Amino acid sequence: MMIHAYDDIYLSDAQKILGHAVDFALMSLNIEPDVFGSAFAVSHVSSQFAMGNPVYVAGMNGCELAREVLTRVNIHFDDTEDAMYLDKSPEYWAGWALAFYQWYSSRSFIEILKTVPLSEIISMYPVFHEMDIMQFADRMDEIFKEKYPFTRLKYKRLNCNLSQSELARNSGVALRQIQLFEQRQRNINNASAITLLKLSRTLSCRMEDLIEFQVAQ
């Protein structure tokens, strides 16, 4: 069973808040989609939102969230009064769907928006907005598989300029085990905590950064 960063009782509010934030930033403050998407991704706000910090997923409205993001990353904007509409725009849907996918996948916002920019999510509105949200989530998973065919372990290892044997030697994890993880013949999600800890320390990342969200069968 997938473990999520915060309880699903907060999910609906979180989706609405991020939906209104995107709509307000783009439609009322006239910020370009990928400018706001990038600002949100790199800001402290996105990491706290992903963790389910009540201040962000329940304690403010979307307009306030948008302002805080832009202020924190020093992007100038001409402020205006709050605007949240009953008719939901493609921009609103993009934020709403993005919040769901982050919660569902447990990927960071920066990883998601680096792979699928906010403008691309908005462009998915005509096809997906009337479908079940899981259809959107499945498509996002497909995009990740298309853009990142290797396991996350392999990407981290290559980024550190380590061979499999060097990773094995430096981490103390058996070479054959590393090979099986990278070939997806063994599910790294089922690895012991000590194995993940050894690998993550050697690769200078978090244990959860090695987890596969959708392991190929």
TrEMBL record:
Protein name per UniProt: DNA-binding transcriptional regulator, XRE-family HTH domain
> The HTH cro/C1-type domain covers which part of the protein?
153-210
Which InterPro entries does the entry mention? Cro/C1-type_HTH (IPR001387), Lambda_DNA-bd_dom_sf (IPR010982)
Query: Which GO MF terms are attached to this record?
Result: DNA binding
**SMART domains, per the entry:** HTH_XRE
Q: What's a Pfam family this protein contains?
A: HTH_3
Domain of life of the native organism: Bacteria
What's in the keyword line of the UniProt record? DNA-binding
